[in-house]
């Protein structure tokens, strides 16, 4: 039998982030009865209302009505299609109408989820070991995993309750320059970030764009959770404030439609000039790279998503309305349950934030939050959560966990919080967990 040594393969295979995701999956399968606040998965309830055939027909009718060769419209679904995408005009319309992002359809690429968009953008921008990707710390593991896959250097920049610390990013730019490197791009998820739930304040958004101009880097804006903002409290997307084409805007239909479609998009309206003087959009360049990755995004899945959008008047807000209500209900329910169940007290130093949108609540404990503690929580109290250290490329997060309630119903959230609070009362006190694990597992 052929044996391959992992150490002799690409370093990304040894990325601790992949290990921790593997461990979470493994522990969920070992404790199937445990109530899990771990996965940030979308709620399955809306799937029962999906009429996929109708959505596809809807798109085909639209394509026929706008095409010079209407009888060919249905055929589009079965061909490779253009690498940049089939539904760019519909998505561009929705972005203009709902987010104030004025993007030409040619400056979009429809990608296999937001994940492919991140990979393509990093591949295009990170040209040498001296090019660094700055990321908010903590940040979504999808971007750090993509950087690891490409061997791109990551510079962690702390965030506070108002989002990314722009002064720290400014200092990171100067430090990179002193060492002959440069911050090429900075990844942020300004609205209810995964995993921290943090939302970037309005004034920070402007400061970040100013700094991007001063220091000549691009901002990679990930807008996965913006749709969950309570109506009337929405803050402008970075891309809608972007007068200098500094922002590459990445979006996904995973949460507003369903993740199995694997449809996302990237707005990349920057101009790329070649040495012969010709100029194209960054989107066109990303599409050239895409032909070496996924060739195109499944036309059937694109049609499905576009049909869903058209069924909702072409509006992302309308499309996501029932889901955003559901997610806000869950989040409010989780926070209320935490308040209610902890009236009798908790060990000193247990605290959590109170986001108004998104899928996640971050909880700090006065004890190390690691695989050992998770094992105890699952085995003795039947409740799971996600340790946050793997989300911290800067090395922090050793005492925090992430709670996600996106895919649970209210009763499960209540039961999960009862179990969580019982666990915290027993083990969130310095010394307790190590003593027990020492006795149980050795
Ligand atoms: C911040 C963030 N971006 C993007 C995604 C989704 O990406 P995709 O469209 O690849 O499913 C997620 C999903 O967990 C996320 O949390």
TrEMBL record:
Keywords of the record: Aminotransferase, Pyridoxal phosphate, Transferase
Native organism: Streptomyces flavidovirens
Xref: CDD domains: AAT_like
Domain Aminotransferase class I/classII large positions: 88-420
GO molecular function: transaminase activity
Keyword match Transferase: yes
Pfam family, any one: Aminotran_1_2
Cofactors demanded by this protein: pyridoxal 5'-phosphate
Protein name: PLP-dependent aminotransferase family protein
Cited PANTHER family: AMINOTRANSFERASE, KYNURENINE_ALPHA-AMINOADIPATE AMINOTRANSFERASE, MITOCHONDRIAL
Alphabetical list of InterPro entries matching this protein: Aminotransferase_I/II_large, Class-I_PLP-dep_aminotransf, PyrdxlP-dep_Trfase, PyrdxlP-dep_Trfase_major, PyrdxlP-dep_Trfase_small
Top-rank taxon, per record: Bacteria
UniProt keyword ATP-binding, yes or no: no
């Amino acid at each position: 039998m052929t044996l391959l040594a992992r150490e002799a393969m690409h370093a990304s295979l040894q990325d601790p982030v992949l290990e921790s995701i593997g461990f979470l999956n493994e522990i969920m399968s070992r404790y199937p009865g445990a109530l899990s606040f771990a996965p940030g998965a979308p709620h399955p309830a809306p799937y029962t209302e999906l009429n996929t055939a109708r959505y596809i027909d809807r798109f085909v009718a639209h394509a026929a009505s706008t095409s010079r060769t209407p009888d060919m419209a249905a055929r589009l679904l079965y061909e490779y299609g253009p690498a940049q995408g089939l539904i760019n005009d519909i998505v561009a319309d929705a972005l203009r109408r709902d987010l104030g992002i004025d993007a030409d359809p040619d400056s979009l690429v429809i990608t296999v989820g937001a994940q492919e968009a991140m990979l393509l953008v990093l591949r295009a921008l990170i040209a040498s070991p001296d090019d660094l990707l700055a990321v908010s710390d903590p940040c979504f593991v999808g971007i750090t995993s993509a950087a690891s896959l490409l061997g791109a250097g990551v510079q962690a920049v702390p965030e506070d309750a108002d989002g990314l610390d722009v002064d720290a990013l400014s200092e990171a730019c100067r430090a990179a320059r002193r060492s002959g490197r440069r911050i090429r791009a900075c990844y942020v998820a300004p609205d209810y970030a995964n995993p921290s739930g943090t939302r970037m304040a309005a004034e920070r958004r402007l400061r970040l764009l100013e700094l991007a101009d001063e220091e000549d880097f691009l901002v990679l804006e990930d807008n996965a959770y913006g749709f969950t903002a309570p109506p009337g409290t929405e803050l402008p997307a970075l891309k809608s404030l972007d007068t200098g084409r500094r922002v590459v805007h990445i979006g996904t239909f995973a949460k507003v439609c369903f993740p199995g479609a694997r449809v996302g998009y990237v707005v990349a309206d920057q101009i790329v000039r070649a040495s012969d003087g010709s100029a194209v959009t960054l989107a066109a360049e990303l599409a050239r790279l895409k032909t070496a990755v996924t060739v195109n995004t499944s036309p059937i899945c694109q049609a499905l998503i576009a049909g869903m959008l058209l069924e909702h008047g072409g509006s992302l807000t309308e499309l996501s309305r029932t889901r955003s209500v559901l997610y806000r209900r869950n989040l409010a329910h989780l926070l209320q349950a935490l308040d209610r169940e902890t009236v009798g007290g908790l060990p000193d130093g247990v605290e959590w934030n109170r986001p108004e949108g998104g899928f996640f609540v971050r909880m700090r404990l006065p004890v190390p939050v690691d695989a050992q503690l998770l094992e105890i929580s699952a085995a003795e109290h039947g409740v799971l959560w996600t340790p946050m250290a793997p989300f911290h490329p800067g090395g922090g997060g050793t005492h925090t966990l992430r709670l996600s309630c996106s895919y649970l119903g209210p009763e499960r959230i209540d039961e999960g919080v009862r179990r969580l609070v019982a666990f915290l009362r027993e083990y969130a006190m310095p010394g307790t967990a190590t003593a027990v694990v020492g006795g149980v597992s050795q």
